[in-house]
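=== RUN LOG ===
request id: a7f3
mode: sequence -> structure
chains: 1
length: 126
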Amino acid sequence: MIYLKLRQAGLVVNHKRVDRLYAPAKLQVRRRKRKKVSVSKRQSLVRPHAANEVCSMDFVLDQTAEGHAIKCLTIVDDATHESVAIVSERAIGGYPLPILDQLCVIRRLPKVIRTATVRSSAVARY
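=== RESULT ===
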């Protein structure tokens, strides 16, 4: 990397000489190692038999024409594929407990709420 920067600056330098001078001084640019994500045990997704047993909850990101980000929280009943709630805001901070409280007033909470995360899938039981 340093050799390429010297070449871009207009210096004619041998890359072996640059390596020989910079290696003892530990000025080499280190290559990043990829993070290893541990594989966790996956739970089997059982198809619910009745409505309001299992719901899935996930965030969906979108963008307006002006370039502003919109975050939507979608909650779907897995048995009926009914959209229980869609909440869209510019920023939804923290865990969406107020939204779940409103759902509890309108209709009872499901037994299980599935959430998908980047690293692993989590299941919350209420």
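=== NOTES ===
Strands lie at 54-63, 69-77, 83-89, 112-116, 121-125.
Residues 97-106 form the longest helix (10 residues).
=== END ===
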